Amino acid sequence: MPRPLKKPEDKMKRLLIANIQYESEIREIDRKGQALVAHCSEGTYRTRLEDPGKFTVEELSRFAKKFGIPMADLFKSRKVCDE
Q1: What is the superkingdom listed in this entry's lineage (predicted)?
Q2: pTM above 0.85, yes or no
C-alpha cells in the first residue's frame, strides 16, 4: 500500500516548531520558559506544539520579539553550510 503524501502545511508546521526550538536552544530557554514567553500554561503550550496550527498570531509575535527576529523568519528554512 503506498504511503500517503504529506500535506504542504505539515512541512510548514514542522518548520515552525523546529525554528522555535532552535532559537530557544541558542538562548537557553527551556520549555517552561517558552510557555512563559507565549503567555500560556505549560499544558497549553504542549498542545500548541502537538498542533502548531493552534498558535495565535500574538503568541508567534511574542516569540519573534523575544528572539529578536522578524516573525516571517519563524517560517523560513535555515540553510546549513559545510565548512
Answers
A1: Bacteria
A2: no
Directed axis angle between helix 31-38 and helix 57-67, to 10°?
120
Looking at per-residue pLDDT, the higher value among 15 and 8 belongs to: 15
For the chain, report the end-to-end CA distance as a whole number of angstroms: 41
Closest by CA position to 21, among listed 32, 8, 34, 11: 34
Task: Give the position of cell 500554561.
Answer: 41
Number of domains in the chain: 1
Residue 63: inside a domain: yes
Angle at 35 between CA 18 and CA 47, to 5 degrees: 70
Report yes or no on 5 lying in a domain: no
Provide the pLDDT for residue 78.
77
Domain around 62: 14-75
Q: What is the CATH number of the domain that holds 23?
A: 1.10.260.40
